[in-house]
Amino acid sequence: MADEQVQKTAQEAATPEVVVNVTTTAHDVLPQPADKENETPSPSPLPETEEQPLEPNSTREAITVTTLGDKIPESAASFKEETTKVADLPDPQRKALQDLKHLLEEALHNHEFSTSVPPEPQAHASQDANSTTAPAPAEPENPEPETTRAQEQQKAPEQAHAQPVAAEPVLEDKAATPATPDDDGAKTVEAIQETIVAVSSSSVPQEQPTQPIEPEEENNKPTLSPPEADTKESKEEEPRLPEEVSIWGIPLLVDERSDVVLLKFLRARDFKVKDAFFMLKNTVLWRKQFGIDELVDEEFGSDLEKVVFMHGLDKEGHPVCYNVYGQFQNKELYQNTFSDEEKREKFLRWRIQFLERSIRKLDFTPGGISTIVQVNDLKNSPGPGKWELRQATKQALQLLQDNYPEFVAKQVFINVPWWYLAVNRMISPFLTQRTKSKFVFAGPSKTADTLSRYIAAEQIPIKYGGLSKEGESGTTDAVTEITIRPAAKHTVEFPVTEACLLSWEVRVVGWDVKYGAEFVPSTEESYTVIIQKSRKIGSGEEPVIFNSFKIGEAGKVVLTIDNTTSKKKRLLYRLKTKPCSELN
Length: 584
Description:
Layout: H1 2-14, E1 17-21, H2 26-29, H3 60-69, H4 91-109, H5 120-129, H6 143-162, H7 164-173, H8 181-193, H9 196-207, H10 215-220, H11 226-237, E2 246-247, E3 250-251, H12 257-268, H13 273-290, H14 292-295, E4 308-313, E5 319-324, H15 331-338, H16 341-359, E6 372-377, H17 387-403, E7 408-414, H18 418-427, H19 433-436, E8 439-441, H20 447-454, E9 480-484, E10 488-496, E11 500-508, E12 513-521, E13 529-537, E14 545-551, E15 555-563, E16 569-579
Parallel strand pairs: 1-10, 5-6, 6-7, 7-8
Antiparallel strand pairs: 2-3, 4-5, 9-16, 10-15, 11-14, 11-16, 12-13, 12-15
Helix pairs in contact: 4-12, 4-13, 5-9, 6-7, 12-13, 16-17
């Protein structure tokens, strides 16, 4: 018996103990945000390895870097959001913005956005201009005018002798470049490769050639009656007001918020003004064709509310959108969403509606938060064999890429399976550095640590390693986060000076530690009260423990966490106090 006591005493003496008083400042206790310029977000398709024990003198910052960096290394340069303030732009970018505004102003005056459906030549030209293969030559649409040109060329000398006044305009307008079927096919290819405006402007004279008016015909023209003449003159003289166009609830060229919208299109096209203008124009026309304004008010039910949802903010204030693909393991939900074309179209409209509603809540003022952080949970996600899901996802991604530029601040992939990392390794060389710098990857055991780098614990849902309950939004009570070293005992104290009800939430990510709580009165005559008897909490038990204790005298509540494992643990906790006078 004596030997057992000696052995127990020696073991307790060998276990280091750390005591933290709750009155310490948040700067001392909470992990400070990492330096964004030196931060390196992931993607390395390497499988995770077992975590090594910490060195005794390691700091918490070193722990964070070692944990993520060694397992799934991030890209060389982390994405840093560019400014949305015009005054802070470099001169070339500021000039590009002004040029785009001039093009947009001219288009609004010409009512180029009034067409609800994009004209066919413009749609094909826009699509083919971005493709990697050359389009097949199209057949001439109106062969009759080409035949007429050839006949006019043959008769030109005769017409020159018979009517010298009318022959000269005809030769300049139509016969300057004789057209053949082969030449016309070549012209079609060149027209497709040109801009949308060039295609549309060059197609009008070919379809409706303007005939010169001969002197004899002028005398025979029908005269308009006085009322008809007045009406025609009034219509010609009446000035056309510029078109009013809004996108995501922001009217273009009305205030400074429009500059933020235009900068998104410019950055999506590397500040190539014409490309950005055509992208903007096609987006506006697509929104009218898709019926976005009506779509926002449609009702689709609540079947997919757990598949995609908004929850909390990241440390920089960006709204966070969670995409939980594992929900489609539910066969009934999968069939109801993707089993036929009509259902896939409904899913697509629902997904666009969700994004539209989220975007309209963003702040488009210069310097405001106008981007979203996407968290993609790949746990139990359907594999590549789900053809219907791949088709719907591919179609949605194409629409989002073409019509919603620069709305993602960061893409965080969590619970990433090994095969996804292998695919990412193959496609990574084809992605731009800007795109890759927005990606962060984390395997199943690193999900909570990775999210905590970008999102505060009080904003992370409980299922992903935080303390935010389902349905919580907005400002919540701050969470204190502490790292417990391997084979160490950690104690947290809550001093209390008056009678009150003390409530707290505590969580050790991954648990597998011993946890206990007790109240220690300040007076020596009083007895210690056991609130929670020390017991080992396994990794599969409840993620968060909620405790409360009504205190009638001064003292302190002491939480004890004994980490007997060889791995470090993250401790999260927060507390609330409520005076007894408010309890009744």
